[in-house]
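Title: [Solved] Adenylate kinase 3D structure

Original question kept below for reference.
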Amino acid sequence: MKLGIVTGIPGVGKTTILNTIKEILSKENSKFLIMNYGDYMLKTAMEMKYVSNRDEMRKLPLNVQRQLQLEAAKNIYKDASSLGDGLSFLDTHAVVRTPGGYLPGLPKHIVEILQPQVIFLIESDPELILKRQENDKTRARTDYSDPAVIKETMDFARYSAMASAVLVGASVKVVKNVEGDPSIAAHQIIKSLV
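Solution (posted by the thread starter after getting help):
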């Protein structure tokens, strides 16, 4: 199993980059899987009647978020393992900003289940991230609407990614999302995981 965890603050362009990876690998007839940690958590949270949409999850008590993280990790590992030697990509956050503080997206008990080879940090200029967030009317991200908060969150994401990588011997790679050409970041990620 080859698993790359693709992280970044909301609005940095993870989904766009992962969609580009999907296009590239589909054209190459490669065996791959793209998963979203939030989808796995949301499915469980909705089944348990904790939330009605994804953005409400960040506001849940930390103990509930931890429980949802654990269930998601088990299911993600199972799905990635079923792919054999194919490439698996997991869209998630290295940290989640909550009312109770920064919650590690990849704490010890989670990263040890997932066993990634690489943790990718997608980054962009905070002002550019703000502009992308404003243009995305499908999500409510008012808790990330200040450039200082975006910068602070990206700093915490770097610290968290490295701490998680140390636990499983993974590497950490910072990938800049260049405006207008997500294929640059997509190719860097594919090359680093193969």
